[in-house]
Amino acid sequence: MITLFHLLVKIVKWTVITVAYLLLGLAKLVAILVVLVVVAGRAGVRRLLDAKERRDGADEPDEYDLGYPSPGLSMDAFDSRWQRERDLRVAERQARQLRGGEARVVTSRTEVGGGRPPG
Asked: pTM value?
């Protein structure tokens, strides 16, 4: 009789633990789905409002239109400027690493540490 009682207690105990574990997993899944729905809803509303604003101001240029070439700076000028800034950063980092001796680093476009950039 006592063995049957212990077996019944163990069955109830493990059933409660299993149900609690499954409910916790389900709660996590629901929480993740709620967050995804909220984020997707916000993005959808923002997109709808953007589309409405663009329709309202149809005579204004589209702020998302990234047509090339850009009116202020050509892509070649932008690329060369970006490359020059990158070369300078790399050269400065190399010069800091050398610290001792002559910190003269020559890059493809500029010279750092004693030289002057091309003018």
From this structure: 0.40
